[in-house]
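Hi support team,

I've been running sequence recovery on a batch of backbones for a student project. Most finish fine, but this one hangs at about 90% for roughly twenty minutes before it completes. I'm not sure whether the input is malformed or the queue is just slow. I've pasted the structure tokens below so you can try to reproduce it. Let me know if you need the job ID as well.

Thanks,
M.K.
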């Protein structure tokens, strides 16, 4: 009896020891478990802001849509750049370059542009594309301009008929070409029939209202013609109506390396392809000849 009680006591002690040992084992296992530390996520590195290049060009290039088309194509090729477009008349474009407000110019006064290189204000000025002027007048053509063999002959016919003629006074390249044509015609341009407007689009509108004629860039005509019922191109294609454009790299620009990339792109295969194709879809005809290469 005494031996049996001893055995029961021993069994209970053994069971208690096993329980304690298991509890210790579980506790130790829990203490040994390492809780992973959550490290704060580092912010993504900031993307560098695109470098801005200020590009100045004429109203005709902007109004026709070529400037925006060049901008889109250039930024697709060079997404690290952002092109800002400014401009106005040819003289304003040149002034923006001289004042340092624009690093690259696309302008149709090549002699004036190349003078900037000679004066040290520009690094380079080179031919970029060829535009042209057209004579726009009433569809009925009362001065019979369509039958003229040359632009000078057309001007002579307009003067002889004393048909209304409107000069776009704000366009220096156009005024220079027009003055040469009046001189070549041998006719006087003085008279109440000869009016003035501030810009090409205004000249087109006034000529349309007065049933008259005007000389404008093809790009200006194509951009405005949908609102000029009764007007039409009555003379085009004369070599005297050529309107060459230079692309100019100014000195003193904020980002000269990037500006150089733009100049080379406009005069290179990619830019020339954009220029040569422009207008075919939008207007049904090419606006500028890409002949820089």
């Amino acid at each position: 009896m005494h031996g049996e009680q001893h055995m029961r006591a021993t069994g209970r002690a053994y069971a208690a020891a096993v329980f304690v040992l298991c509890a210790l084992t579980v506790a130790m296992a829990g203490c040994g478990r390492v809780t992973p530390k959550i490290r704060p996520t580092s912010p993504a590195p900031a993307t560098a802001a695109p470098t801005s290049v200020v590009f100045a060009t004429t109203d005709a290039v902007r109004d026709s849509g070529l400037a925006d088309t060049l901008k889109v194509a250039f930024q697709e090729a060079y997404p690290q750049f952002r092109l800002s477009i400014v401009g106005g008349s040819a003289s304003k474009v040149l002034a923006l370059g001289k004042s340092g407000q624009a690093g690259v110019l696309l302008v149709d006064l090549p002699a004036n542009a190349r003078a900037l290189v000679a004066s040290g204000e520009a690094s380079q000025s080179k031919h970029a594309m060829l535009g042209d002027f057209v004579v726009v007048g009433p569809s009925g053509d009362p001065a019979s301009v369509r039958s003229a063999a040359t632009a000078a002959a057309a001007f002579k016919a307009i003067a002889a008929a004393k048909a209304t003629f409107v000069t776009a006074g704000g366009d220096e390249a156009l005024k220079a070409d027009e003055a040469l044509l009046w001189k070549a015609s041998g006719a006087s341009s003085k008279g109440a029939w000869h009016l003035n407007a501030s810009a090409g689009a205004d000249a087109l509108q006034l000529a349309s209202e007065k049933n008259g004629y005007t000389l404008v860039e093809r790009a200006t005509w194509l951009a405005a013609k949908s609102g000029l019922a009764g007007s039409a191109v009555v003379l085009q294609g004369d070599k005297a109506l050529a309107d060459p454009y230079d692309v100019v790299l100014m000195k003193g620009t904020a980002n000269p390396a990037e500006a150089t990339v733009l100049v080379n792109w406009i005069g290179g295969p990619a830019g020339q392809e954009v220029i040569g194709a422009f207008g075919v879809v939008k207007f049904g005809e090419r606006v500028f000849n890409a002949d820089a290469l």
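--
Follow-up from support: It reproduced on our side and the slowdown came from queue contention, not your input. Residues 2-32 form the longest helix (31 residues). No action needed from you.
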